[in-house]
Write a structure and sequence with these properties.
Elements: H1 3-22, H2 30-40, H3 43-50, E1 66-70, E2 85-89, H4 90-96, H5 101-112
Antiparallel strand pairs: 1-2
């Protein structure tokens, strides 16, 4: 085996690293998803959704129309702790996707005040 084999092996990790960087937010740890599932069964969560109001848009959609949303998404380093979880309507939760609070506020401002 000559130098060519050594160079070929050395280049592979770089290509893989670039591909990983282009994929976007990273994988979500399974323990965080499980913790969120556990929180969904608590009295705390039932109380949070009882009013049926979305945290983001303020619409009243009823308790069954709300979903659990992580303010700082799990894919961006958030955790499934009570301080990081809010009740959001499905529409807001889908639109927010994996945005951070500042990015989400910019998005909402752009909707409220469209450029002229």
């Amino acid at each position: 085996m000559g130098r060519k084999d050594e160079n070929r092996d050395r280049k592979r990790p770089r290509a893989r690293a670039r591909a990983d960087a282009l994929q976007g937010p990273g994988p979500v740890p399974l323990q965080e998803k499980n913790r969120a599932r556990e929180l969904r069964t608590t009295a705390w969560w039932r109380k949070k959704i009882a009013a049926g109001t979305c945290h983001y848009c303020g619409k009243t959609v009823g308790p069954h129309g709300l979903t659990m949303d992580h303010i700082i998404p799990l894919s961006r380093g958030g955790t499934s702790e009570r301080f990081n979880i809010v009740a959001a309507c499905k529409e807001c939760n889908n639109r927010k996707n994996y945005l951070l609070p500042a990015e989400w506020e910019e998005y909402l401002d752009s909707i409220k005040n469209p450029p002229r």
